[in-house]
Amino acid sequence: MTTPIGRRRLTPLRRISIALVTSALLASGCASAPSPASAPAPAIPPPPATARTPSAPAPASAAGELQKPIRQVLPNGLRLIVQDHRAADIVAVYLYVGVGVRYEKPDQLGFAHFQEHMLFKGTDKWGAGYIDRAVEGGGGRTNATTSFDYTDFYIVVPAEALETAVQILADMAVRSTFDPKEVDRERQVIFEEANIQADNPRTAIVRNIYGLVFADNPYGYPPLGTRETMEAATSAKLKAFNQHYYTPQNMTLVVVGPVEPAKVRALVDRIFGTLPATGYQAAPAPAPRPLRGVSRQTVERPEQQAFLAMGWQAPRADDPNGDAVDLLTTILAGSESSRLVRRLRDDERLVNGVSMSYSAQMGGGIASLRAELEAKDLAQVERIVLEEIAKMQESGPTEEERQLAVIKFESQHAFDTETSEGLANAYGLAETTWTLEAELGYVDRLRKITGEQIRDAARRYLSRSDYAQVGFVPKKP
Questions:
Q1: Which end of the chain is more exposed for a tag (fewer CB within 10 A), N or C?
Q2: What does pLDDT average to over the chain?
């Protein structure tokens, strides 16, 4: 299971550069260890005929656009979002839980990610390996992610298997067994993930830049924990962590596909609605300590290629100033036609690649730049980056640059909203980390951002004197 860190709006709307989420993951993919041999799990059985979702025509709209999703809150506090989306006979079911790295205490580092592993390793009803085999056997797929502010699980299946998908997610969330043998097995998997992360310079440098930008803050914690906290993660401790955070008040369930909202609500009432409320209240996200001066870190590594990362503190998820920062980072180094790509890669040929993105968490955001280059060019590339920031602070973007950045977001939105999966992911992320309404209006707001607002965002957030810098250089012989 992939584990993005600080995924901003990863489908379909407000989104961080995919480079940060996939090729530079801070917490690596959750590959499960093989389970002991057991009886094969049956394929997803179709629910009773009365529970099937009919393939009625989609509701009409003036321009053929989707109706707004329906948001409801169950009596026990669970938030339910349903979208009738009939592009295919596929339904996406996402469960977002408001727990991630920032919720962990010092002796619990890595527990949120460990949870993600263990919820696939057996419930009081099904043994280890059942979930994956059952979903895949019915033509579906399942996965999960852990980030700083949330953990999410999803199942994408043929529409007739909706009931089973909802039931499996409920069983995973609150009825996982945390078998001690499976805990020990997954602990070794996580150690291997940590080794892979450390060995990959693109992953490791992002981990390091977060540690500098969010020094002494949970957003700088290692998502995979430490060897000490992982060794101390017993079955009982992980189960207690689960029982505290995996409560209906802390969950959002999203269903998108060819569905009837009323029937989905009845189904969810029967499966999730019986979970008792616990009175859980989330702790506020801690704001990072402001950066003062340039915080530098140089690391010698075995690779012959050098790597540069620069990071600035940026708006948190619910800050409207983040809209301008999204466009700003795209104009500077978020596309093939961006300023720094043209100058550093195409014109001066100082880098093999350069990218910039904005990632917003609930407590604070980060604008980060990453480049691959020769070690002798590190200082020169950093100087040019600051020069281009100064130009942006002085005169802002051209109108053509602004329009191209908006078009990029519009096209990505159009592409991502073609699928039930993209919509479900976006809705769950928005409901958990900012608001569904703000997400629905995101692209329209971007169109209204002016060049002056982008210039002002550069002045406010891309300081040329207060930032973090990490350089990976080849180890000296």
A1: C
A2: 88
Q: What is the b/e burial string over 447-460, where b = at least 16 CB atoms within 10 angstroms of the residue's CB?
A: eebebebbbbbbee
152-169 burial, b for 16+ CB within 10 Å, e for fewer? Answer: bbbbbbbbbbbbbbbbbb
Q: Are 459 and 286 in contact (CB under 8 A)?
A: no
Structure tokens belonging to residue 11: 């489908």
The b-or-e profile of 11-43 (16+ CB within 10 A means b, else e) is bbbbbbbbbbbeebbbbbebebbebeeeeebeb
**Which residue do the tokens 């009409």 mark?**
60
pLDDT over 60 at 63, yes or no: no
Tokens for 63? 């321009």
Q: Which CATH architecture has domain 294-474?
A: 2-Layer Sandwich (3.30)
Amino acid sitting at position 457: A
**pLDDT given at position 122:** 94
18-35+67-271 and 294-474 share one CATH topology?
yes
CATH class belonging to 18-35+67-271? alpha beta
pTM: 0.88
Query: In this structure, are residues 100 and 151 in contact, taking their beta carbons and an 8 Å threshold?
Result: yes
For the record, the structure tokens of 179 come out as 């078998």
CA–CA gap between residue 403 and residue 274 (Å, rounded):
49
Q: How does DSSP classify residue 104?
A: -
Nearest residue to 426 via CA among 85, 119, 63: 85
321 contacts 313 by C-beta, under 8 angstroms: no
CB atoms within 10 A of CB 346: 11
Q: Where are the domains of the chain?
A: 18-35+67-271, 294-474
Token pair 């056997």 in the structure block, residue: 137
**pLDDT digit string, tens, across residues 321-376:** 999 999 999 999 999 999 999 999 999 999 999 999 999 999 999 999 999 999 99
N- to C-terminal Cα distance for the chain? 38
Kind of pairing, strands 467-474 and 294-301? parallel
